[in-house]
Specification:
- With about 190 residues, the chain is of the alpha/beta class.
- It is about 40% helix and about 15% strand.
- The protein contains 7 helices and 5 strands; from the N terminus they run E-H-H-E-H-E-H-H-H-E-H-E.
- The protein has helices at about 15, 30-40, 55-70, 95-100, 100-110, 120-140, 150-160; strands at about 1-10, 50-55, 75, 145-150, 180-185.
- It has a 5-stranded mixed beta sheet with strand order 3-2-4-1-5, with helices on both faces.
- Helix 2 runs parallel beside helix 3, helix 4 (about 95-100) crosses helix 5 (about 100-110) and helix 6 (about 120-140) crosses helix 7 (about 150-160).
């Protein structure tokens, strides 16, 4: 059995402002850096042998705090990135609704199958994150692996492997700096 410790990155300024980050490469803010250090301290005795991270700075910086604490290198993988929100990245829900009313309504009507202009669907995210988790399962059986990623990517992993209906995925998005455990047979 492989034990996954799923970690959502620490806070960014856009998290506090309610802006959709998607794949915009933002750094942690001061609270986010504190959260990353707290995560590292709380997992110092968790038996982690590997750390994988999204290649976006907010995840990498969170992962590096853990790596420093454990003396481990961080392996980045772009498949662990957040959902690509296309032209909506950097905007608040209010701004999206004002500028893209019709497309936003289509997304609300079909939150899994409709992508923002230039973005990706929830199904696209599921395909890529499941690929990387399956690869890690094959390559690292019987290990404890930390995965530092993003809210929606983690929600997708949880829905897929806990067999939660995918239509409920948006309700599974964890808070910044949250830690969840998932044990999977290979």
């Amino acid at each position: 059995m492989t034990r996954f410790i799923l970690i959502r990155h620490g806070e960014t300024d856009w998290n506090t402002q309610g802006r959709w980050q998607g794949q915009i490469d933002l750094p942690l803010n001061s609270r986010g850096r504190e959260q990353a250090d707290q995560i590292a301290r709380s997992l110092s005795n968790a038996g982690i042998s590997l750390i994988y991270s999204s290649d976006l700075r907010r995840a990498v910086n969170t992962a590096k705090s853990l790596g420093k604490m454990l003396g481990l290198m961080v392996q980045t993988d772009p498949r662990l990135r957040e959902i690509h929100q296309g032209e909506w990245q950097g905007l608040s829900v209010k701004e999206i609704n004002e500028r893209y009313a019709e497309a936003f309504q289509q997304r609300m009507n079909d939150p899994l199958g409709v992508a923002p202009p230039g973005g990706e669907t929830a199904f696209d995210v599921r395909k890529r994150v499941v690929q990387v988790i399956e690869q890690i399962l094959r390559e690292h059986p019987e290990e404890t692996v930390a995965i530092v990623s993003h809210g929606f990517a983690i929600a997708v992993i949880l829905a897929h492997y806990r067999k939660i209906p995918f239509k409920k995925v948006w309700g599974l998005v964890p808070q910044n700096a949250s830690i969840q455990t998932l044990e999977l047979m290979h």
